[in-house]
Amino acid sequence: MRSKNFTKYFVIFLFVWLVLLPPIFSQAQNRLVNPLTTDSFAELIADIAKWIFIFVVPIAVVMILIGAIMMMTSGGNPQRITTAKNIIIWTLIGFAVALLATGLIRFVATALGVE
């Protein structure tokens, strides 16, 4: 009984070492390619801020339109008017933060001497 288990485990061990592991080790010799298009951390942060800004602008426009439509269709209901004003105000605050993010990154990079 013991020899059957030993034989089974030995065959599995040989299979792993001879079939599965050589491709892994052969890939380790290849040079890794950087999937990012940036070469420095500052460029990476600037690219992230640019992508966030690209997504924020359409969302801000849609949210302002939603707030305006809510205000027009409120029918004099003070609670809906307050909700619509809050949507517009917080959307403008978020948009201002997104606008300032790019300028802030450039300011910090200039202050630190990063090109």
Give an account of the 3D structure:
This protein has helices at residues 2-27, 41-72, 78-112. It has 115 residues and is mostly helical. The chain has one domain (2-112). Helix 2 packs antiparallel against helix 3 (78-112). It is elongated.
Topology diagram in text:
Blueprint (H helix, E strand, L loop, with lengths): L1 H26 L13 H32 L5 H35 L3
Helix pairs in contact: 2-3
Key descriptive features of the protein:
elongated; mainly alpha; 3 helices; 115 residues
Kindly summarize this structure in a few lines.
81% of the residues lie in helices and 0% in strands. It is mainly α. The relative contact order is 0.09.
Strand segment tally: 0
Biggest sheet record: none
Name the overall outline.
elongated
Number of domains: 1
What is the structural class?
Answer: mainly alpha
Poorly predicted runs = none
Question: Order of helices and strands, N to C?
Answer: HHH
Mean pLDDT equals 81
Rg: 29 Å
Give the helix tally: 3
- Distance from N terminus to C terminus (CA atoms, Å) equals 71 Å
